[in-house]
Each structure stands twice: as C-alpha cells, then as structure tokens.
Specification:
Number of strands: 16
Low-confidence stretches: 1-6
Strand order of the largest sheet: 4-12-11-10-9-5-8
Mean pLDDT: 94
CATH superfamily of the largest domain: Type I PLP-dependent aspartate aminotransferase-like (Major domain)
Largest sheet: 7 strands, mixed
Length: about 450
Amino acid sequence: MTAPDVTRHNVKRVLEQELARYGRRTPKSAALHERAEAAMPFGVASSFQAGDPYPIYMVSGEGSHITDVDGNTYVDYHNGFGTMAVGHAHPKVRAAIERAAKSGTHFAATTEDDVLLAEELKRRFGMEKVRFVNSGSEATMDAVRLARAASGKDVLLKIEGSYHGHHDAVMYSVVPTMDSGGASERPWSVPFSRGIPKGTEQHTMIVPFNDVDALERVLDEHGDDIGAMIMEPVMMNLGIIVPQRGYLESVRALCTKHDVVLIFDEVKTGVTIAPGGATEYFGVQPDLVCLAKAIGGGTPIGAFGGRADLMDEICNGVAALGTFNGNPLSVAASLATLTEVLTPDAYEHLAKMGTRLAQGCEEVLQNAGVRAHTTDLGCKGSITFSDRKLVHYRDFQTIDDSLFDASWYWLINRGIFQTPGKEEQWTISVQHDEDDIDTFVNVLDEYCREVASA
C-alpha cells in the first residue's frame, strides 16, 4: 500500500471534484483541443503532451510563470520536460537569439559559436570531441550507431524502464507490464511501439538498474556480442531513482572489461543536477555522453561526445549528419545558457531552491501521514508516492497511480503546472524564488490534508 486506507475514498472524491473544476477553468483549452484533433493526432505536437480529458494550451511564459489560453497563470515546475532551467524569456537568452537572428538564421555551415559551444561542453563533461544534433533522440541514435561501429559488435544493452528517445534501437522495455517483462533479473526486450520490425529485439538486450550481478551475468554470457551500453546514470523516467553507492563505478569497470562502449544519456541530468551533469556529480566518466533539453535554453539542440578515438570514427564512415546541426539560433541560445546564465551563482541558487522545495514537501507529506518520499538533485526533484526508496523499474511498477493523479489536478487548479505523469519530475529554473517554492509546498499541504482527513 502506498497511503493510509483512510485516503482511498478521499482520493477518488478529490479527483472527481478537481476534474470538474479543471473543466470550468479551461473552456478555451477544451475548445482548442477539439479543433486541434482535426489537424493533429491527439490534438498535440507530441504524444507526450496529450492529457485527460484534454491538455492545457499555453500562450506565453515569463520568468517562473506561464499563462494558458484561458488566461490562467501558473508557477511552472514542468518547464518543458526539464528544458527550461533558465526560466522563460530569460533576457540573456533572448538577446542572444535576437543577435543571431539579425546575422542569419541558418547557413548549414559551421560558425565560430559552434566551436565555442563545443569547447564549453568539453570542459563541463570531460569530453574530447563533440558533434551537434537537434534533439535527445538524435543524440542517442548517433551515439549508439557510433558505439556499435567502433566496437564492431551489434548488440545494445539498455536499462529496463529507461527512455532514450524514439528510434527503434532504444524503443524496448520503456514501460513493460509486470507480466510481459520476464524475470526481474533477466528482463525481456518488450517493444514500446508498433511499427518496429520483428527481429529488431535481437539487437537490444535489457538489464535492471542498480543490479551489478545481473549486469555481470549478461556480459559474461553475451559480452562478445554486446558493443554498447546506454543508460541514464540517474533514472528519470520513474520519478527519480539514484544509483546505489558503487553501482556506476561497477558498470564502468564491467564495460571496460568486456570492451563495451558505455554511453551516459544525460539528456535530463546534463547541466541540471550539476554543471557537468551526472558525469561530474558522481565522478564516473563514460565513453560517450548524450545531451539535449536544458543545454539549449529552450531551443532545439542536442549533442553527443566523448573519447576522441570514438568520435573520430565519424571521419571513418560512421554517419552523423543533419542539415540543422549547429543551427546559429540554437547555438547562440545554448552558448548564452551555459556561459551567461547557468553560472556558479546560478547553481548555488538552484541547489538552495531545490532543497527548500524537497524538504518542504517531505515535511508536508510526513505531517499528513501520506506515505511518500522526495528526491532532491539540483534543479531536479520528485515526489514518489511510496514509503520506500525505489531501486529499479519493478519497484516503480508497484506504485498506485491514484495519489499522483488526484494531486496533479489539485495543483494545476491552484496555479501549479507539473509534468503530466508520476514518471516525471519537477524542474526549477534560475528565475524561481522562495515565494514560488512556498506556493508549491502550501498547495501540496492543502492536498495532503484533504486526502488524509478522516
């Protein structure tokens, strides 16, 4: 059980009342959704943006706040699925984009800013060479291809429950059901989407997170075929699951032993939990790092990089292409984000705000008797409605969704915009202040008291 018995009836009641309130507050979003469904699948630009009964449509953002088509304003803890660590319409990012736009929005030719940005990413993540792309999916796709080519081995190893983008190689065991995933120590490769050719699963194997023994068994048995391992060093498709002490070090050692290229997917952790992401935070250096989201300050950009001998395989026939790679607008925004906004002072502020939020939420949950815990990692954090820390995907699958579902509508109806699923996290921006944090905590306190009352 994830909460006291007394909350079950209350959670259902709260969800029903908040769904009705949601409808009353957002009639223009409802109307726009009906119109959008005639033009776009689910009425949204990405399936992750869909919602029940319909998503909220936004019109503007400034600082830590956003405004929807109905004129409702929210403190934003969604922040573009973790992209907007700079906050909305940050003056320095906006100025950089405006300067770039005046000079030309696209050349399909390399600029000096590309070189400067590559040098900054090298410095932060301990990489030797970098290649730009346009999204996290492109970063992981190119990194996997490069790793397979460099190792001469075709099988990719990934973690059960991790999402690494929407290319076929990584679209396995993202959210498998308990009865479809196989034994916990030897998970099966379960496709996440229709349209993936049968047989592709032979080239993607699955292991659980935080299980060194399981990884060692797989590598001992199949190391001659496994060319690459891709993983989030901190799992961020399950709320947040942190690596146990020594786990990443063991992964690093085993991959080295078996000549497996280790890829850290830092699309979510990069420049958010530390200036150099999880690579810096945990002190474990992978062979390749994949980046996107927060590095771009709200513009579409990604990157992957690592050891020079691996990256130079691009000069030896490994395709790493893209018309918009290194686009001047995105690169200018990214360079401003990393050198002018996400400075040492900014990280001190993010750490202070993140700890204030996590500790405030933890106190609220404990006082109300709601079984849950919080995680605090820089500007990233989460509430997981479970009375114990999660270790891997199978732990996450046991959580009852109802407490989160009701809380999402409660919070959004009171001006808190969150990511739309229990698997996501909050993201704080440099423009959030103590009032923003306390607003979240106070609204959560009201919710917890409501669902935990007799």
